[in-house]
Amino acid sequence: MKEENLSKLTENEILTYESLFYEKKIKLKYNIKKNIKYACNGDLIRQLLGILIDNSIKHTNENGNVTVNLYKSRNRNENRYGLGLAIAKDIVEKHNAKISASSKKGITTFKVTF
């Protein structure tokens, strides 16, 4: 584990998938607070982001919306995991963090709290 800039790491991973959002006509919005640092395994965090972003593309209808937010938070929500997110859950737990997913009125939210 070493200190990583989660802001840059997240933005770079999102940019990797931009063309897929465009092809599927999914509107992508992201709000990334600058310079958020965290001691982690950067490769595993990139893998985690890839899993979450890939799932958002696969499970969002054409002309749908996906929003990615990265900000500092001390809120802790209860743990809820889907079967397809087992790897993401493992990565998060290795970083002493929490992951949750919720869905309301057709909007699904994945939240990773470090």
Provide a short characterization of the protein structure:
By secondary structure, this protein is α+β, with helices and mostly antiparallel strands. The protein is built from 3 helices and 6 strands; from the N terminus they run E-H-E-E-H-E-H-E-E. The mean pLDDT is 88.
Please characterize this protein's 3D structure.
This protein has a two-stranded antiparallel sheet. Strands 2-4 form a two-stranded parallel sheet. The protein has a two-stranded antiparallel ribbon with strand order 5-6. The chain has 3 helices and 6 strands; from the N terminus they run βαββαβαββ. The longest helix has 18 residues, at 6-23. A hairpin with a 2-residue loop joins strand 5 and strand 6 (107-113). 39% of the residues lie in helices and 30% in strands. It is globular and about 40 Å long. The chain has 114 residues and is of the alpha+beta class. The mean pLDDT is 88.
Strand order of the largest sheet: 1-3
The structure class reads alpha+beta
Strand content: 25-35%
Percent in helix:
25-40%
Number of helices: 3
H/E element sequence: EHEEHEHEE
What is the count of β-strands? 6
CA-atom Rg in angstroms: 14 Å
Rounded to the nearest angstrom, the distance between the terminal CA atoms is 14 Å
Taking all residues together, what is the mean pLDDT?
A: 88
Form type: globular
Q: Which parts are unreliable, with pLDDT below 50 for 5 consecutive residues or more?
A: none
Largest sheet features: 2 strands, antiparallel
